[in-house]
Design a protein that fits this description.
The protein is an alpha/beta fold. Helix content is 28%, strand content 27%. The two termini are 16 Å apart.
């Protein structure tokens, strides 16, 4: 499957997007950063449209064989990426608009002004809204690297060039939280994908 990690910046129509492929090999999860892009559109309407177009990009659509319990021949199912939205003000911007277009969207929110996670937005895979701190994202990224699920070179490849600062900080000081002031949008977009892949179990029923 694919994730589209999206961080909406304060400037209207601007977002950082990271596309991550999650696959399984011999029972182990593998993550691959396949695309990193900063979108700058005229306003939120155009940005929503651009994100929906990215969702339909066949490069980030997984094709799966679905078997029927009735014995009928298997069918091929196209699964668009799951969009993980986070924003500068913890808002749920664009989520409802994209859901009306049948997009799979989940919202990632961070700590409030007092530094605490909002108890009304607890991590719940059924609520489509997850409270996730920066420390939780860093922990997931480091854990996936230690397990070999995410290769460090994935964060320094040409496709992920804007993530190189974050990668250097994570790899140089694995026991401490890196300074995220200049890379927070990228960090949130990527961290949302890895945290979700490591923490939320998706159950598909056909």
């Amino acid at each position: 499957m694919f994730y589209l990690g999206v961080f909406l910046e304060q400037e209207e129509g601007t977002a950082q997007v990271v596309a991550v492929e999650k696959s399984f090999y011999s029972g182990s999860k593998k993550y691959r950063v396949v695309h990193v892009q900063r979108l700058q559109e005229k306003n939120s309407v155009f940005l929503t449209r651009a994100l929906l177009e990215m969702r339909h990009d066949e490069r980030w659509n997984a094709v799966k064989k679905v078997f029927s319990q009735s014995g009928r021949p298997p069918k091929m199912k196209v699964e668009p990426p799951l969009i993980l939205l986070s924003s500068w003000d913890n808002g749920r911007h664009m989520a409802d608009e994209m859901r009306r277009e049948r997009a799979s969207v989940e919202v990632i929110v961070g700590p409030g002004s007092d530094g605490a996670l909002n108890p009304g937005k607890k991590t719940d895979p059924l609520a489509n809204c997850h409270a996730v701190s920066a420390e939780m994202m860093v922990s997931s990224i480091k854990k996936s690297i230690l397990k070999g699920n995410l290769k460090p070179e994935q964060l320094t490849a040409d496709a992920a060039a804007p993530l190189s600062f974050l990668a250097e900080a994570l790899l140089a000081e694995p026991e401490t939280l890196p300074a995220l002031s200049s890379s927070t949008p990228w960090f949130s977009a990527l961290g949302s994908c890895i945290w979700h892949g490591e923490s939320i179990r998706r159950i598909k029923r056909y």
